[in-house]
Each structure stands twice: as C-alpha cells, then as structure tokens.
Description:
This protein is an alpha/beta fold. The chain contains eight helices and eight strands, in the order E-H-E-H-E-H-E-H-E-H-E-H-E-H-E-H. It has helices at residues 18-27, 46-58, 77-90, 111-130, 148-158, 175-185, 210-219, 241-260, and strands at 4-9, 32-36, 62-67, 94-97, 134-137, 163-167, 189-194, 229-233. An eight-stranded parallel β-barrel has the order 1-2-3-4-5-6-7-8, surrounded by five helices. The longest helix is centred in the middle third of the chain and has 20 residues, at 111-130. 41% of the residues are buried. The model has no long low-confidence stretch (mean pLDDT 94).
Amino acid sequence: MTSFRPGLCSVTFRKLAPRTIVRLATECGIEGIEWAGDVHVPPGQLDFARHVRRLTEDAGLSVISYGSYIAPPSDDETAFATVLETAQALGAPNIRIWPGSRNRDSVTYSQQEREHAASLIRRMARLADSASVTIGLEYHPNSLTDDLASAQKLAAEIDDPNVFLYWQPRPGLPLDEALDELRAIGAETSHVHVFAWDGEKSRYPLSDQRTYWSRILTEAPETRWPGDRFAMLEFVRDDSPEQFRLDAAVFRQLLEEVKDRPAGAARPL
C-alpha cells in the first residue's frame, strides 16, 4: 500500500505571502509545500527563492517541488534553464511542468507537434537529471495529459526515466473511472493533487468527498517514484484559510486512516 505525506500547493493561496503560507501549513500539520512559480517564487529571483527555502525549512517543512508553468512547446530549454536554477536555489527536488501549450486540448495536436513537445521535455529532463532534480508533468485538462490515452502516449513518446506524472482527477470524474485511470498510469506517478470540485468546478469542503479520497489514497498503486510521495491539497472553497484549516484536519485524518489500514481491510462506506 502506498503511503502519502500531507502537502500543500502554495498556489491555493495566491494572495498570501510565503511567510503566512508557511505559518498556516505548520499550524495545520502539513509537512511540505510545492511553491508556485507564477506567484510566490518567480523564475530567476534566486535570492528570494533562497529566502523562501529558509522560511520553509526553518519551520520543519519540506520543499516538495517547484510548481513552474513552463509549457513546452511554448517554452524551450532556455526558459527551463532559468526555472532549474530557481528550483535549485529553492531546494526543490522536483519541477512540475505543463505539457503542451496552456489551455489547448490534446486532440488538437498533430503527431509532429506532439513529438516536438516530447523532445523538448526529454531535453529538459536530461538537464534536470544532471542537477539531481526530477520532472513531474501536470495531469490536467487542456494539456497533453488531459486524458488517460494522451498521457500514456506522451509518457511513451518522452521515454525518459527522469519524467513522472502527477495525478489528479478531472473535476467531476466518477470514482470508478478515477480509480481505473490511476491504476492504468500506475508506476509513472509521483505526487497527487487533492481537491473537492464537481464537474462545474464548484468547490466544496473536503469532508463532502471524504469517501472518494479515502478510496483514491487507499488504492493508489505502487510507483517507480524514488522518494517520499505527497498528497497535496490544492485549492479550497472561497480561497479561505479557515476552510483550509477544516479541510486539512479531514485530510490528515484520512491519511492516518489509510496508513493504518491493513491490506485487504474493508473500505469505508
């Protein structure tokens, strides 16, 4: 059974400063943070990245990843080199990237465009590997990983051991389909993004989807990922710190139940 540590994506709180996010995460028993590159730790601001690293580590938290918005083929190795340097200053062992141009469905790509994107990601992965940093592909609508078939095809096209897949359900994805998808991706996954949305992208308390996430976290397959795996809360109702406190309490309890549940034990109803 896979074990997850509790994490937080800083993009959940775009309007809060890193120091406030660290304080909130610590208060709520979160163990690591993925820092967003579009708001909290901008690429190229190395001194600030080092400052955020100190804030995080001094609080006893891990820097899980640098949540960049590098989007090959829109971005190339030159842009990635700046992101990689920033991730190193931040102390991030992983960089999350967006596969494909942002807000473009995978079905709109020609095979040549897919191969170009895969080639760029592979070159980025080699640069990252030389710095002992892994690559995690965002698993998200409007990307080259917006459905299972395209994600599996992209992973095969990239064919690099330093590239992994994040996983999150498309908003409103039924539980059985989510479990089938997660099992199919299986060994390629690293971290998981956790949220409570519906198909209209309306947000709810995590407690409303407790059974859903209990099944997901319990049945997540083993993976070739070499380090600690984090399940990261991403977005809360009304962007509310108070809602986050409530969700984090449910989240931590879920993770403890999953960790303590013997293999083959009955699942919660």
